[in-house]
Write a structure and sequence with these properties.
This is FAD-binding oxidoreductase. The chain is of the alpha+beta class. It has 17 helices and 19 strands.
């Protein structure tokens, strides 16, 4: 099971006087103390943790956020930044001790500026990803960050975790999509780095400290995002392949054919798809025959005459002739494209509905993905006979969500109690292959001990030094990511 031990903290200073000052600052809409209304803010998405908090603070502006942080800091009250609460590692919920306030940026959700000439968009941290995508599309642009929770995930949380997603292969992680940031520091000061510059070589690039820090160094309140030309030609294929090795070979063929147009390449195993068919209404198998391995391939270009359909068909036909593809279907409409993408994007929700699951968000060099899936599957099946492997993900960038569902009929709680044991087995394979124990979900509360073990030495020393320098009182999201020595 994930570690549920709260950090050692002094008695909190959330007094009635502080509560009165915060309510006067934020108004009734900006401060929640009713336990029923608070539940969604203190419960982790998968239900692994349910914390407690004296209050949920919901500032409506950077100024309100900064003043709320200043008041809490003066009182020694610890704070948990939250933007969407879709974290999968417990980064965005408070501990059970009940002495941390949650500061949600959900009310700060405006799109402040969109400049098609600069190809930038300036947004508040509470803006929902789907709204940002839509605004970009309406302006003839593209914001390429895309993932299954985009209807609820907020920009501040996506940047705080350096989210990846389906288009990382072409556009990079969240870190690569940001030009400027505004951050409220743990003492309430506002760090204004909200610049739209493509080139700015003036000392340390401080914004990268906060992207991926999971709220441990401050609260992201605004961001300048990079936009790209909106694709005019999008082609999507869903292919059955004989093995993971064949999936990798197919990826290489598309890269060599026209790597610049390849925007996504996803892998799915049969078990994961069966969960989607079972639990997601309207999901259906694109093929009449059963296969064990599948790929989702997307090509896109801003040029309407890019000829992507011809190229997609040519690569698939050649791969079929060589035995790398067993069957394939190409989306003929936007509705079909959305339906095929849904088969991939609903994996997490389907597995959640199936019951107890252990998740491993790992990455290895792309060439070692087949080794990862084979060796980690063998290790977990030896550990827990009958365990069901649900491996899927972004094979194009080496990030596989190596998830495990409890054996049929097994006790879910007993299965989850073996979380650390299973993670150790998977991580042993990952480490031997030169990979990472966290590819895109982050560290949060779930993986702090793993971080300390894997990054011990100068790397961990520097992380702790940065945390002490920016947040000497350990007020901002304590007990997450980096635990003090």
């Amino acid at each position: 099971m994930p570690d549920t031990t709260p950090p050692q903290v002094a008695r909190h200073g959330f007094t009635p006087a502080l509560a009165e000052r915060l309510r006067a600052l934020l108004g009734d809409r900006g401060m929640i103390t009713d336990p029923a209304e608070m539940r969604g803010y203190v419960t982790e998405w998968r239900g692994l943790w349910t914390g407690r908090s004296p209050a949920i603070l919901r500032p409506a502006s950077t100024a309100e956020c900064a003043e709320a942080v200043r008041l809490c800091a003066e009182a020694g009250v610890r704070m948990v930044p939250q933007a969407g609460n879709t974290s999968l590692v417990g980064a965005s919920v408070p501990h059970e001790a009940g002495d941390e306030v949650v500061i949600s940026v959900g009310r700060m959700n405006r799109i402040l500026d969109l400049d098609p000439a600069d190809m930038t968009m300036t947004v508040e941290a509470g803006a929902v990803l789907a709204s940002v995508q839509k605004a970009a599309e309406e302006a003839g642009c593209l914001f390429p960050l895309s993932l299954g929770s985009e209807g609820t995930a907020q920009i501040g949380g996506l940047l705080g975790t350096n989210a990846g997603g389906n288009a990382t292969l072409r556009y990079g992680n969240a870190r690569d999509l940001v030009l400027g940031l505004e951050v409220v520091l743990p003492d309430g000061r506002v760090l204004d780095m909200l610049r739209r510059l493509r080139k700015d070589n003036t000392g340390y690039c401080l914004r990268h400290l906060f992207i991926g820090a999971e709220g441990t160094l401050g609260i992201i309140t605004r961001a300048v995002l990079k936009l790209f030309p909106r694709p005019s030609d999008i082609q999507l294929a869903f292919a059955a392949v004989p093995s993971v090795e064949a999936a990798l070979a197919l990826l290489n063929r598309f890269q060599r054919h026209d790597g610049a147009s390849l925007s996504a390449f996803e892998y799915m195993g049969r078990f994961g798809l069966e969960l989607v068919f079972r639990h997601i209404p309207g999901a259906a198998d694109p093929f009449g025959a059963r296969h064990e391995h599948y790929c989702l391939v997307e090509l896109s270009s801003p040029r309407p005459d890019a000829g992507l359909r011809h190229g997609l068909e040519a690569v698939l036909e050649g791969a079929y002739a060589d035995g790398l593809v067993l069957d394939a279907t190409i989306a003929e409409s936007e509705a079909q494209r959305a339906s095929l993408w849904r088969l991939r994007e609903e994996h997490s929700e389907a597995q959640k509905r199936e019951g107890a699951s252990i998740k491993n968000d790992v990455s290895v060099p792309v060439s070692r993905v087949p080794d990862l899936i084979a060796q980690a599957s063998a290790a977990c099946r030896a550990l827990i006979p009958g365990v069901r492997v649900c491996a899927f993900g972004h094979v194009g960038d080496g990030n596989i969500h190596f998830n495990l569902s409890a054996p049929e009929g097994a006790d879910g709680a007993a299965f989850l109690a073996r979380w650390d044991e299973v993670a150790e087995a998977v991580n042993g394979v990952v480490r031997a292959l030169g990979g990472s124990f966290s590819a895109e979900h982050g560290v949060g509360r779930l993986k702090t001990r793993t971080l300390a073990a894997w990054r011990a030495g100068p790397e961990l020393d520097l992380m702790r030094a940065i945390k002490r320098t920016i947040d000497p009182g350990n007020l901002m999201n304590p007990g997450k990511v980096v635990i003090s020595a």
